[in-house]
Amino acid sequence: MRSELNLVFGPFRLKPGGGLWRHDDEIRLPPKEMALLELLVQSRGEVVKHEAIYQYLWPRQTIGYPSLARCVYSLRKALAPEADELIRTIPKRGYRLAVPVQSVAENGPNCAIKSMVATHPLAHAHFQAGLASASNPGAESLDRALHWFEASVRSDPGFSAAHTALAEVRLYQSIRGFIHPRDALRMGLDSCNLALKSGEPMVQARGLRAWFTALIGGDLEHGLKLAEEALQLDPEYSRTYVYLSWIHRALGSSEAALKYTTKAVAQDPHGVFNRHAHAVSLFQAGKNAEALKQEEWVAKNYPVDDIAKGYRSVFLASLGRHREALDAAYQALDMAQHIPSVWGALAWTMVVCGEPEEARRLIQEAHSARLPRCPRPLMVPALLALGKVDVAFGFLYEAREEQCPWFFGARTDPRLAVLRDDKRWQSLYREAA
Asked: Are 180 and 371 in contact (CB under 8 A)?
């Protein structure tokens, strides 16, 4: 919907999506220059950083500073002779509009605020930059994503999508061990609740709220109910199926988890989160070769994803392809040198492939790491393979106490089947429920 407001600055009048005038003379700008001007004007004097402009003007391209400089030069040329007073360069940071902006409504029945675009352009630019950073699951990339999403909600506190994105980053950080589960629960639910304050259905935030409630909050039944309500609101949103798969694994049903991840991949076959979840569901259902195919697809299409390399190693090892499994494990470890969760998860590959000393080293380093840290259940398969049953139970008890999101999902891990007849196992999960 186009805004019916005119934004007046200096001698210019800008109607976002509608045109630019100097007094009564229309000025025709190329699309990129017009988009840049709208971004600067609607940011109302705030500094718009280079990265935000790249994402706003060239969202799916890798663009260098010369392209941005040419765009700014072209825009200043079109706005001459006032341009030097209007657009200020902030060295090494970005640009800002240096004059006040007034909003003037046009006459007519649709001139109220309801006809304005929902999101502040600067908030949208920051949001797009956050999405670009969040596509890489590394710690630094997720930190950058948080920076951009937090900047987005500062620019527009009512931007529900940005609040939801913040919650989603907290989910990623918790399952990768970048933050403590209790911190993830608090911050994740806060962001979900802020997203839902808009009064819109926001199925994305509802699904995330279900995941946090069940997997970290430990209220599996309530989390399941929330996820099912989210699914009813929008059966086409694939992530809800993934959240349901996590919850059903936590409840002990690998069959239901596989049913939901199959639907998630059918809905969105390009979603990396969907593919990873489906691979895990296939593995836990004994379909190891099919699980491997999922991660090979991810590794081919998203080569920077260390998770795909790690899962691929585990699945290859489970199929007896030890040389390939070790190669994949060392690739993942090389990509994830500062991620203890990867070290701990790949210790199992090392044991199965005849490298027990390397497995012990990885477990020791993963367990001693603080933040980032290794979720304890990820190390349990390797401990069992090394014959350390009592230590394995100790790690599971520790995971339960710290509300680790991987704790409940360990119930359906086929590598832990030997524990299920142990009274400690039954007590562990009965008490947790």
From this structure: yes
Taking a C-beta distance cutoff of 8 angstroms, is the pair 402, 377 a contact? no
Query: Would you call 282 exposed, middle or buried from its count of C-beta atoms within 10 A (0-12, 13-18, 19+)?
Result: buried
327 is written with which tokens? 């190669």
Q: What residues in the chain have per-residue pLDDT under 70? A: 1-5, 103-120, 198-201, 431-433
Helices 160-176 & 181-196 angle (0-180, nearest 10): 160
Q: What is the pLDDT of residues 286-303, one digit of tens each?
A: 999 999 999 999 998 888
Greatest CA separation for the chain: 83
Q: Please state the length of the chain.
A: 433
- If you count DSSP H runs as helices and E runs as strands, how many of each does the chain have, helices first? 21, 8
Distances (CA, A) of 86 to 44, 96, 165: 11, 8, 34
Q: What HEC string does 332-362 produce?
A: HHHHCCCCHHHHHHHHHHHHHCCCHHHHHHH
Strands of 12-15's sheet in order across: 25-27, 19-22, 12-15, 5-9, 102-105
Query: 3-state class of 23 per DSSP?
Result: coil
Sign of CA pseudo-dihedral 349, 351, 354, 358: positive
Measured in whole angstroms, the distance separating CA 163 from the mean position of its chain's CA atoms is 12
Only one residue has tokens 């971004």, namely 39
Closest-CA residue to 240 (of 205, 196, 216): 205
The amino acid sitting at 270 is: H
Distance CA 19, CA 103 (A): 15
Three-state secondary-structure class, residue 12: strand
* Distance between CA atoms of residues 205 and 208, nearest Å: 5
- Whole-model pTM: value is 0.76
- Torsions phi, psi of 407, nearest 5? -60, -55
Nearest to 131, CA basis, from 152, 114, 116: 152
Q: Residue 70, CB half-sphere, CA atoms under 13 Å: how many? A: 8
Residues 6+ apart with CB under 8 A from 30: 74
